[in-house]
Amino acid sequence: MAHQLLRLVRVPGGNPDCNCIQNVCCDCWTGGCGLNAVFGKIADGLEVINPVMEWCADAIWIFGSPLAFPFIFCFDSGPETQPPGGGWKISMLAAPCKAPFKCCYYTICAPCGQWSMRRQLLEYDMTKYKLWQGYHDGPHCFARRCPGAPCTIKSGTYGEENCPNCFLCLEVWLLAGMWSVCCAFNVNRRMIKEQRKLGNDPTENRMNKCVGFFSHLAHQCCMLGCCMCITGCCVGCCAPDSAGAQECSGEAGRAGRQCQRCAMTCWRGIWSIKVIAQGCMSAQMDVELKEGQPLVAAPKAIRMDRGGPADDEIENKWWFKHEPESPSQEPPPQHAAAHAPHQDQHHPQPQHPHHPQQPHAKKGQQHNQHQQGHH
């Protein structure tokens, strides 16, 4: 289509028999800019790597936990907390062993599991239900850039009180598209943490960092693939009659498609990890609701004392405004002791009224007696 449109363009001053935009393009564009070899090498390398990556993704997708979770342990678990493990009754890793049937249920039938979990968190009182319990209220999608555009969520305004169970089914199955189960799970996780004053499980921290890393990697691969495809399209459109340019365009498109395959492989790995992690964490939440007790206070991170100031004190030292000390403020004891000799030499301290002043009293009495004798 682009080739046909470009042939309709008539360039002023060019050959009237040739309506090709090649007349106004430089030789480097018409020859492919020398990028055809570069794009070809990139595509060849990605074609070698991608089958291996896809095989690994298939294995992770089929076998699940035994092959997916080793990627999680490549990341840090975060600082230790008191109580340990975020205060949960059982850890996330112990959930498959201590509650295997619940773990399988929440993994295999995730929407039904999150539906029943929400009802437990609401204590089976569906009058408390709101769409995503208000956690996702606010502008989304285009509304973040343009107020008034779709879509802005306001829970409690859609008539949820009329049929809360149906709205909950739509929430876990449909309303967020392919992310509906993840959104419902995130709401349930945040609810139980607020109700029981719980923190993050160490394995949960690993999972979040792992998913964040591979999401960033998939995003970069996708953007790189789009850039390669656009570059190849531009080169091919600028010189539709040049064999070198068309070869460069083809190689760029092939490299871009391989980058897209890499992004899709990362995406499949992310989904496999999230599905297994959600099953384990949901079983952990189920045990917590039945056997656990709310904490008195939220868990606090344990800081390692290395003999120096804490990191937040160093980082925030410039932030706080230190007011000058008032003149009437007494110096600390060590400074007072250090300046005591100087005060005795230059400015003798007044003595307390109830202390006897022997030398001064005797001199005053002698002076008075002498004046009385003189008179």
Spans of at least 5 consecutive residues with low confidence: 1-22, 28-32, 310-326, 335-347, 352-363
Count of helical stretches: 14
Give the termini distance in whole angstroms: 135 Å
Roughly how much helix do the residues carry, as a percent range? 55-70%
Content-based structural category: mainly alpha
Main β-sheet description = 2 strands, antiparallel
Note the overall shape: globular
**Helix and strand sequence:** HHHHEHHHEEHHHHEHHH
Written description of the protein model:
The chain is mainly alpha-helical. It is built from 14 helices and four strands. It has a two-stranded antiparallel ribbon with strand order 1-4. α7 (110-121) crosses α8. The model is unreliable at 1-22, 28-32, 310-326, 335-347 and 352-363 (pLDDT under 50).
Please render the helix and strand layout as text.
Blueprint: H1 2-7, H2 27-30, H3 35-63, H4 65-72, E1 81-82, H5 95-98, H6 100-108, H7 110-121, E2 138-139, E3 152-153, H8 164-173, H9 180-196, H10 202-238, H11 243-291, E4 300-301, H12 311-315, H13 333-346, H14 358-374
Antiparallel strand pairs: 1-4, 2-3
